[in-house]
Amino acid sequence: MENKNLQFKTTLNCGGCVAKVKSDLDSAEGIIDWSVDTNNTDKILTVHSEGATEDEIIAIIKSKGFKAEPLGI
Length: 73
Prior knowledge:
The protein is an alpha+beta fold. 32% of the residues lie in helices and 34% in strands. A four-stranded antiparallel sheet has the order 2-3-1-4, covered by helices on one side.
C-alpha cells in the first residue's frame, strides 16, 4: 500500500476542535498519524496515509461539523 502525506485546509480552529475529530482520525483505517497546525491561518491538517483517501478523511472531518479541502502537495 502506498504511503503518502495529504494536506487539507480546515476549519479546525483550536484544541477543542481538534479534540472532536481526534478519536475518529486515530481509529480510521489507513491513517498512520496526523496533526493540525492551528497557528496557520488555513488550519492545515496533515495526514500520513497508508491507504486512506482524501475523500475518506474529508468525510471524517465533515461528520464532526467541520470543513476540509485538499491542498494537493
